Amino acid sequence: MLESNMFIPSRRGLAPKMILMLCGVAVLVLIIVFLGTSMNRKPAPRAVVMNTSTPAVTPPPAPSPTPPAPVDEASLEDAPVTITPVRFDFGLMKPGSATERTVQLRNVGTEPVRVLGSKKTCSCTQVDLKPTVLQPGQEIPVTATMTAGFRQSDKSSVKVVLQYADYKPTTIGIIGMISHAVSATPSDIRVHPKGYDEQSYRTSGVVELNSANGKPFQLIRSGGDEPVFHNPIVDSSDWSQQHRLRWNVDGYDRVTGLDAEGNLIPDFWLMETTHEDAPVVAIPLNHRVHRLPPRGQRPWFTIDQFAVVDPAEAGGSVDFVLPVNGNLGVNKDPIYLVESESPAFRADLISSSPASDGKAMNLLIRITPADTTRGIYSGRIMLKSSKWEAPFKLVGYARDLPGS
């Protein structure tokens, strides 16, 4: 019995060994779990040291805001405003003059009207109207200034458009005629009616003269000779507000513009009248020999190619203003000299100043007829800057001495 029991372990001796075994297994499991977790863990980011000597990168600019969609003006209501008078009436405007007219804009609604400004259909017109809020019952002036060119022209197609924030624009019409005291129809004679390079050629026709201010007048000379009136025959001694007469340049060659004596066809068909405010009427003869050369690289130019200046008293002079465009900003090349190319008169540049529209320079030019010049005279003046020059044509009238 005693020998057989020596090979059977007791429970008291087994317990400590089992505990040690279980502890070893637990430690092994913990090691395995720790190693697995360490292998799957991401490495901690390294600290980045900024180089303060290198400028920071500028962030990209924020995107521009999307512009608002255009407003459909047709969907807007009419502005609750009235215009008094209903249009700008410039009447008869003397060539080269500036005429100012004013209308009253009134809010006849019950809500404020935000006035944004104005637009116009012709650069000849400037409008004085600043953005404002027009309260109910309030009235403000709207002033328009029209600068007349030197050519006869009907300005009744020009419009001024007032713009608002939440209403349809309001259109203000214009009535006005640029003309000397005696107007001519047609205002120019197209010797080459289909263009300078076409074969067609006109050497005669009819013109009509009308008193623009209602004063009757006589026609003294036409084209340097006695007037040839259109049927019915009218005696030149008759005083009338209207005269119809014939012009004729049969004696000048279609290509060269020369007559049999070698005289060049004149720039104008000139007519002398007894009208105190319009003793001379000039209609351009657009013959190919009078075609001006291209402007080329010259930065400045005149809108018109000629002017009929006011009559000059015997021994006196007359001033006129000639706008020159393109002579501002980077293109500025001041005109410093004006010279006459005709012995019939002298030309002097008196001053130069910016025009009100900011797009031109106004040259104040003085024309002095020669002591021996009487009646109608014409010729060219030359505008000169440091780099360029350009011609401009003039027609004038020198009155006789009193009692002569």
Describe the SSE topology:
Layout: H1 2-5, H2 11-40, E1 81-84, E2 87-93, E3 98-107, E4 113-120, E5 125-128, E6 132-134, E7 139-147, E8 153-154, E9 159-164, E10 170-178, E11 182-185, E12 204-211, E13 219-222, E14 242-248, E15 268-273, E16 280-284, E17 306-308, E18 318-325, E19 335-340, E20 345-354, E21 360-369, E22 375-385, E23 389-398
Parallel strand pairs: 2-10, 17-23
Antiparallel strand pairs: 1-3, 3-7, 4-6, 4-9, 5-7, 8-10, 9-10, 11-12, 12-14, 13-15, 15-16, 18-21, 19-22, 20-21, 22-23
Name the overall outline.
globular
Q: What is the string of helix and strand elements?
A: HHEEEEEEEEEEEEEEEEEEEEEEE
CATH class of the largest domain: Mainly Beta
Give me the Rg, rounded.
45 Å
| Low-pLDDT ranges | 1-14
The major pleated sheet works out as:
6 strands, mixed
Q: Report the sheet-strand fraction.
A: 35-45%
Can you give the mean pLDDT?
84
What share of residues is helical?
A: under 10%
The total number of structural domains is: 3
Beta strand count: 23
CATH architecture of the largest domain: Sandwich
The name CATH uses for the topology of the largest domain is Immunoglobulin-like
Structural class: mainly beta
Question: How far apart are the termini?
Answer: 182 Å
| Number of helices in the DSSP assignment | 2
